[in-house]
Amino acid sequence: MAKLFAILPNNLFSILVSKNKDIYVEALMALRKVFKQEMAISKADLVSMLIASLDEMMAEMDFAAEADDGEGDFSAEEAGGPSLSAAAHFILRRLKETGWIDVEYQPDSFEEYITLPDYAVKLLNLLHSFTDESVREYNSYVYSAYSDLRLADQERDEYTYTALASAYEKTVQLVDELKTLHNNIRRYHQSLNEYATVNDVLKGHFDEYSSLVIDRFYHPLKTLDSVPRFKTPILNILSGWLADHSLRERMCEQAMLRGKYRTREEAAEDIVLKIGEIMDIYERLDEMLEEIDRKNSAYTRASIEKLRYLLNSDRSIKGKIVDLLTRTASSRPGRQTVLLERMAGLVKAYRQGCLDEKSLYLRAASNRGQDETPLEARAAEEGAGEQSMAEFMEQARKSFSHSRVMVFMQELLAGPEAVDSTEINLCDDESFILLLLAALKGSDRQAFYRVEFLDGYYEINGYRIPKMRFIRKGRKNVG
Q1: If one looks up domain 4-131 in CATH, what number appears?
Q2: Whole-number mean pLDDT of the chain?
């Protein structure tokens, strides 16, 4: 393997660490855009394009920093503040000095044309991929590998080796994607520690994790590009190829014609290694998928616990009183009376309201200066406050348990096979929280239902929820 800087110029990345790196990056992105459309472009046209697209940035370019670094050859005009044309020419000169572009002359004239070295094209695509926010289409690696191998096995023509090489590349890419998916789940799991509000948890799960990780790769891999569905046919085809000596000999001849190997022995060895590696990978894929399932389930559980904690973590006096009154109101009548009697001597509660432009009110009469008898201080029974708080905390822990969420979903799916979020009536905060927890548990393999997320949001009774569909497992989609 050749050394990296035997191929790349030593100062190739110097412009990316200079004080003007933002301008150079924008110029490189503009170059990439031009060369996606043209085979070559004249230097004059490229200068005009840079002036048109980077005029404001070039006007603020720090040429003194370039001079301090000892880079570039400055004219008197540039040192004192160059024109836009001079700035564009200077940028192209720096790109040529660092090896990002080449300049060639037309055979019949002295007109200069800009070209890109092959390594520059690859690096520009890599840099662009870091900032590309468009949705990347999922590549069905398993089905593509199966299709290549099945067609080659049926035809057994001069493209058999090509099919093997293509299936090998797709299998390696599949493993890379699975490892990336595994690491992404771990990253989102760790980011839960940084979330401070319920909205942060919901945004991280629905807007980022579900849409960027689960919907784009995990679900297609488990459904459309199912490994169990295509694994056995792939292994059967490759086992047959290993046992067919004459076929492997023809594949060696095809590989030698493509100039990939120096000897037939080297070609034969690599063909066997490729077949063996593909088979080993597909034998291990179930273990990798199970590990990803465990990571996904662990992240979902952690999200639910974080959400539950944040919903019940208002430690202020106000938060405790609000939770205590809410739990009391939802208790059975007998229990409710007991709790109210206990709180009567401990908490003085008053009705509170807010005034707005629609409010009708009577100005309160001022009683300032009137002498009144102070309220008598009443001593609470010993241990009553601690007991009430302990009962309150125990009820808070049980309020949104797993079993209660499942009961909520059993009632929701009691009749229909599937329910859309637009058909759900959210009448209070409790049903809203239960619905969110049910959506989070939809990816759990133990749940009796699954969740399909649709585009957009739906608002009902002041609650805003994603458009989604709850479907009982084991039944076909409805609608």
Answers
A1: 1.10.10.10
A2: 80
